[in-house]
Write a structure and sequence with these properties.
It is a single chain. This protein is α+β, with helices and mostly antiparallel strands. The protein folds into two domains: 49 residues; 137 residues, Glutaredoxin. Helix content is 38%, strand content 20%. The chain has five helices and eight strands. An eight-stranded mixed beta sheet has the order 1-8-7-4-5-6-2-3, covered by helices on one side.
């Protein structure tokens, strides 16, 4: 038997470790791309709709000083946007929300839930020039937790007419307006 020097042994160990690491990486990638990845499916391979979670009940202060109760929104499609006055991406979405609110009228309510933006008075002074055509309320930790948390701004939720959280959209996307439009139409078409 040939004895290996310490350098040769180190080289062989490094090669073995690299081969094992490569095999593990390929295995993980293959598992992630397998037919089992993606949404759950039934016995015939059809996607199974996971049960939608109920949206939280809330009572939040409108910027006009009145209270907005979630019970008054049920039966409509609601787009709940968690935003902040200092968030440039949030501000960039306002024209799209205004346009969609105008397009769908009273069947859909866009609701801006203002967070981390100071007092109601400072929010009122910040939004005067923004030409927002949908209701804005002051958010709180309870409503944030009820929607499952917010990890960044903007975070937008689509709520169905039967008060279930249908979809969550994180951040700003180039096609977000189109995605919202499509999902709103889908939810409006569903029977009550």
């Amino acid at each position: 038997m040939v004895k290996l020097g310490s350098n040769e042994r180190d080289i062989r160990m490094n090669k073995l470790a690299l081969a094992i690491l490569t095999a593990l990486t390929i295995g993980i990638l293959a598992a992630g791309c397998s037919e089992n990845s993606g949404p759950p499916v039934d016995d015939e391979g059809q996607a199974v709709q996971e049960e939608l979670k109920p949206a939280p009940e809330f009572d939040l202060a409108n910027l006009d000083g009145t209270m907005l109760n979630s019970a008054n929104l049920k039966g409509k499609v609601i787009v709940v946007d968690f935003w902040a006055t200092w968030c440039a991406p949030c501000l960039s979405e306002i024209p799209n929300y205004n346009a969609l609110q105008e397009k769908f009228g009273q069947d859909v309510v866009f609701l801006g839930v203002t967070l981390e933006s100071g007092s109601m008075e400072s929010v009122i002074s910040e939004v005067k020039e923004l030409n927002i055509k949908y209701p804005l309320v002051m958010g709180n930790d309870e409503v944030v937790q009820g929607f499952g948390g917010v990890i960044g701004y903007p975070t937008t939720f689509m709520v169905s007419k039967d008060w279930k959280i249908y979809q969550r959209y994180l951040g700003v996307k180039a096609n977000k307006k189109e995605l919202l439009d499509k999902d709103i139409q889908l939810l409006l078409a569903q029977a009550d």
